[in-house]
Design goal:
Elements (H helix, E strand, L loop, with lengths): L4 H6 L2 H16 L11 E6 L12 H18 L3 E6 L1 H4 L12 E6 L7 H7 L10 E7 L1 H14 L3 E10 L3 H13 L3 E3 L1 H9 L7 H8 L6
Parallel strand pairs: 1-2, 1-4, 2-3, 4-5, 5-6
Length: about 220
Amino acid sequence: MYYSYSEVARENYSFVIQKFWRNLERAMGYNEATVEEDSTVLFICDMQEKFYTGIPMFKEVIFNVSKMVQICNVLGIPIVVTEHIPQLFGKTVPEIDLTGVKGPFGKTLWSMCIPEVLKELETICNNKPPKSIILTGVATHACVEMTAIDLKKKGFQVHLLAECCSSSRLEDHTHAIERFKQMGCFVITIENLIGKLLKDVKHEKFKDTLRIVMTSAKL
């Protein structure tokens, strides 16, 4: 990035430096890595009863997704839930509280981006569409990945919660995580996400959120 002598002379030096860093952050994608409470939605993809068997670590994923639901309820973040062919794979597991969520929406597409979900997104954040989607569920390499692809095509920022997804084979899950990064998604953890959402220990919901985050799993 180049700034001429005349530009530096014309503008305050500190302002030029600030502009330089803003441009650099934009180029590096830092701005896209931010997450705001009022423009974020949690997606829960196909956390269904059939997958108690066949999905490694499914019990742990259930626990973490359930924890994320509690956090979103505390912070007022909307939640969208889908079920893949529910007559075949069953309903969403009962451990996940569906009170107040949008859905569950049944689907046959691998992607969660079905017409009913896209319609909800139009006004889900105070009558506006969200900026960021927090993505959880199964399977990482199938329905979750296809959802991410469609969301990226539509201009949403996608943040995959690493401990909130899994696949039937570790190899599929591992390679899918790499593809998420390659397509420009952010692979993060719950605690990392909370830091980005709250930003300050003075946040009025900090203690309530911390209590949920620090809850020990009873597995």
